[in-house]
Amino acid sequence: MIRVILPAHLRTLARVDSELRLDVKGEVTQRSVLDALEARYPMLQGTIRDHGTLKRRAFVRFFACEQDLSHESPDAPLPDAVATGAEPFLIVGAMAGG
Known about the structure:
The chain is an alpha+beta fold. The chain has a single domain (2-93), classed as Roll (Ubiquitin-like (UB roll)). 22% of the residues lie in helices and 19% in strands. It is globular and about 35 Å long.
């Protein structure tokens, strides 16, 4: 089971209260986790990734094991601690301003 933590506004949209647990088939990558997330919670499609390109939206960041994975390849394997469920995959809404 992969553990996923969403920001509050996406938890509200998905109608979940806390951390999500997803079954991911095959290699655990950003793409496979997001594919499983959007399959289980279709209302999240287009909120984390662009509908057409499937690229990460500009103000969304991905973290795991105290590392910013936002600019990693979507097909790169996630850390073993995420793949085993020991650590969560965090999806975070970035803040901007001056």
